[in-house]
Amino acid sequence: MLITELIRRGAVTYADEVAIRHADQALTFRETDRLSNRLATALIAAGVAPVGARISLLMSNSLHSIPMDFACAKARLTRVPLNARLSAREQAQMIAEAGVTTLVFTLDQAERAVELAQACQGLGLFALGPAEGLADLLALAAGQSGDPPDRRAEPDDVALALYTSGTTGRLKAAQHTQASWSAMAANILANLIDVQPGDMMLHAASLIHASGTFILPYWVRGGVAGVLPGFAPEAYCEAVRTWRPKALNLVPTMVGMLLDMPGVQQADFSSVESIIYGASPMPRGTILKALDLWGPRFRQYYGQSEAPLCIAVLGKADHVGPKAEARLMSCGRVSVDCEVRLVDENGDDAPAGAPGEILVRAPFAMTGYLNGGALNRETVLPGGWIRTRDIGRLDEDGYLYLVDRTSDMIVSGGYNVYPREVEDVLSGHPGVREVVVVGLPDDKWGEAVTAFVVPRPGIEPSADDLMAFARAGLAAYKAPKSIRFIEEAPKSAVGKLLRRAVRDPFWVGRERRI
Looking at the predicted structure, is the pLDDT value of residue 506 above 80? Predict the structure, then answer.
């Protein structure tokens, strides 16, 4: 199956129904389809879009986000989205590494776009709207036919090169084809949510990451994308009240912010049937509080940029009942269209119940990293298996539990300690808003388990209180040797906690970092 074929089917079937809402604007399926045709044809006519070319998009969530993504697929281009929250240096590095020569941007990103053009020799700019001295892609598109461009997509066309939010500092872009991205849409519909015509999902996170994976499955089923420019708790709740979406897609940080918002108990969430979360682990305290407020409307997915979206799913029923307390810390059961293996450090299958690195084989997996070289050989294994670099275990009922990342494991006194396990315990303390656990250099232990804690407003737990709380729920060797209080926990551009940003400064100047 092709992205372009799914777009065509949605446009034909739901032509005059609303497909996208943004602020007080809306586009129907037909309007979105024809606008994407015009945008694709305008890029081709401008001579900047040979088949297979990579084109960068620097776009805030807008009415044009989805038509622009569709245009790239129809023109047989590889879109290389740039997260607007990254620095100019990081964005320029991605543009250079990907060999991009054209950048399309929304008007609020005009200053950064010009800065990037100055930093990246030969980079051509196209604005989505009037910008002084720059080509206006919307104006160029207005002069083109609304018919599809004269290009026939192929299953192996690389449609997306997505730079991941990994925390190792290694620049890598997961490549997805027309076929793998279409398989991802089927994966979401088969495992996570049953979309009906007219159902809306509300999007506040950037559409270039996990939120954007829901666009195609909703489109092909006649669903609506409610697109917000960003996330602010009060504005988000007002959008839920007025637009009445059936589904929300949130990262755990957003759930926590909503729960901390004064008056959230009175917010009207009566239309919401499903609250989908993922992208990073959900602290136990947060999900328990959310369930208490909103009830069992939650669904969790576990996936990666390398294999979006659902490697495993924890359904609504798993969030309640006698086994919920344990299962809330799992990722759920493996998706029906996905295979998972757990392997030891030698690549052999781990014993039943024992932790091992998660390997994935699925039709929605990436083909490899752009210019991956040795990294591809390390990651894409014989037989089509993809290394996730996550450590997991499977219980007797088939639920997958993430233990940690291979790169984050702490070795303290000869024992392996997985930071997430410690974080899960500490996050259950009422005085902890966020916590990051890392290993710091220690002459006695090699690495000392250390917790960096952001206190919850109005509550000031002491280090002794938190250490006692941790020791009550953990083996002694896993409990933090010290607690340090911080104002904010460093996060990636998509809200993931950055353990390495906390850890690395303490290891500067040492020959070894373990």
Answer: yes
